[in-house]
Design brief:
Blueprint: H1 4-13, E1 21-25, E2 32-34, E3 41-44, E4 50-54, H2 56-60, E5 69-71, H3 73-76, H4 78-84, E6 85-87, H5 89-100, E7 104-109, H6 117-126, E8 136-138, H7 147-162, E9 166-171, H8 174-181, H9 183-186, E10 191-199, E11 206-212
Parallel strand pairs: 1-7, 1-9, 7-8, 9-10
Antiparallel strand pairs: 2-6, 3-4, 3-5, 10-11
């Protein structure tokens, strides 16, 4: 038996249950640009002492040394997100247009759960993204060694669950997109479109470069 709650969640997750195409969007530096002076991933040594801090872009390619650990407190804070996040209107409009055209759209972020779920959802709504209609997958909850591997797992699970035959990922990280295209090895019958998003906060211009597998 499929309980009504589960059915309702499934309907919210998929705009068009018959469609075999998924459009996945990264959140940070794709939908929202951040004031990096307010948002950092901190690195601690084996004694728990903070030794340096990384921007979101630096973190994507950072290799953690043995004994060191990450401190994600800034990325878990809704208040920090609210203060640091500036909408990238071209990409948010693109996400909304795809969703409005009855397409399946998800947000796949490297973040884990926020400390204030309802406050975070309200902030998204204030910027025109309805999290009740467009599900936000927190790949940081997966426990993978890197954001790229975490997103690889999340999208792979969505393909297996829903049988998608064409998947688009919009991301600012080359590493994330590289791992995304590797999904072709496990899903040879699926078409993958990796869209690298480059945003210039000074001019507001957005450049999208696409690679297909």
């Amino acid at each position: 038996m499929i309980y009504f709650k589960h059915l309702r969640e499934e309907q919210q997750e998929r705009k068009d249950p018959k469609s075999k195409t998924l459009h996945a969007f990264d959140m940070d530096e794709v939908l929202f640009h951040h004031d990096h002076s307010k948002l950092k991933v901190h690195v601690k040594d084996e004694h728990g002492k903070r030794i340096h801090s990384l921007t979101n872009t630096e973190y994507n390619d950072h290799k953690l040394k043995h004994g060191h650990s990450y401190d994600y407190s800034d990325f878990k804070s809704h208040k920090v997100f609210q203060k640091s996040a500036h909408p990238i209107h071209k990409m948010i409009n693109k996400l909304r247009a795809i969703h409005r055209n009855n397409k399946n759209v998800r947000i796949v972020t490297a973040r884990s759960d926020m400390d204030d779920k309802h406050g975070f959802m309200k902030t998204l709504r204030n910027h025109g993204i309805d999290p009740h209609q467009i599900h936000v997958h927190r790949a940081g909850n997966v426990g993978a060694p890197s954001p790229a591997e975490a997103k690889h797992r999340v999208i792979g699970d969505l393909i297996r669950k829903h049988g998608y035959k064409k998947v688009h990922l919009y991301d600012d990280s080359h590493a994330n997109l590289h791992h995304f295209l590797k999904l072709k090895d496990d899903h040879p019958d699926v078409e993958f479109h990796a869209h690298h998003v480059s945003h210039d906060p000074e001019t507001g211009k957005v450049k999208i470069t696409t690679t297909k597998a």
